[in-house]
């Protein structure tokens, strides 16, 4: 696996990638962020953004959802799986509650509707970067043993989701009894609750992107709860 390169900067400033096909919007946003001392790159396509994300480590991705080549949601999903430490803010001029929820489920930290003011976008970015920093500092403070437990839990969650696609009786018991069906697995209460509730946001943030088979249980769980 090729290590991502840190972007070179004369100051220690957050690195932000703006994925926006409207160059007037992108350049205006870059000008605002440059003035605040951020190190900003622009990409006007989804594939261009993914290529940049594959080469450099960014602190934040500003992701427009309507792009000329691929759906911005696909980019968010891919970035969350391959660059979990990068914060994501979804942007769109066609905002709806459902769209915002979908973006958050895929791993966006926040959602902002266009047009937005300078103060609005600065607030959203500052909050996202602060949350990212807090998470990284918390992880660094964890002892090695604790990090090992987190890794084991991730494997356990995936094992359970895989089992739901292969063992119908287990899946039905999990849907019916929730946490009780997870006795014997090395999981925290938060993890058990997230699996039982089909909490896709928690699962993707703590485990990563799921495949189609693993997602089937989550969607069935949400449908059963009337969340779909």
Automatic annotation (TrEMBL):
GO biological process: regulation of DNA-templated transcription
Keyword Transcription regulation on entry: yes
GO MF annotations, alphabetized: phosphorelay response regulator activity; transcription cis-regulatory region binding
InterPro entries: CheY-like_superfamily, Sig_transdc_resp-reg_receiver, WalR-like
Entry keyword set: DNA-binding, Phosphoprotein, Transcription, Transcription regulation, Two-component regulatory system
Domain Response regulatory intervals: 15-129
Residues that bear 4-aspartylphosphate: 64
GO cellular-component term (any): protein-DNA complex
PANTHER family cross-referenced by the UniProt entry: REGULATOR OF RPOS (PTHR48111), TWO-COMPONENT RESPONSE REGULATOR ORR33 (PTHR48111:SF1)
UniProt name for this protein: Response regulator receiver domain-containing protein
Organism whose genome encodes this protein: Desulfocicer vacuolatum DSM 3385
